[in-house]
Amino acid sequence: MAAGTRATGVDSDPLLIGNFTVACTGGMDATFTAIADPTRRALIDALRERNDSSLFDLCSRLMSVSGIAISRQAVSKHIAVLEAAGLLSVRKTGRTNIHHLDTTRLDEVTAWLNAHTNTQEEA
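User: That's the sequence. What structure does it adopt?
Assistant: Structure tokens below.
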């Protein structure tokens, strides 16, 4: 087995994004890591309310809606973690990056949580 590979065969080498380290395990591990931070959850909420937003729009909404005062550089780092987890994609329109929320990973986590919640209720 190669170094950095789990018994499941998934590459688990960490990805360093700014001061954030994200395990590149994909799937639910990366999703749980990404949504563990309240600022990233606020970014997900902002994109859920108004998808396809620029960095400027996201920073403005974090301040006005969530009361989170944060620099654009810090938001960019949080966006990179969300992107590495597969929760959003970024496309360039001219000089502006547009951020798009992809809820596929969140749906997977929701299904997993529902399955485990239902198991607990039936026991």
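The longest strand covers residues 88-93.
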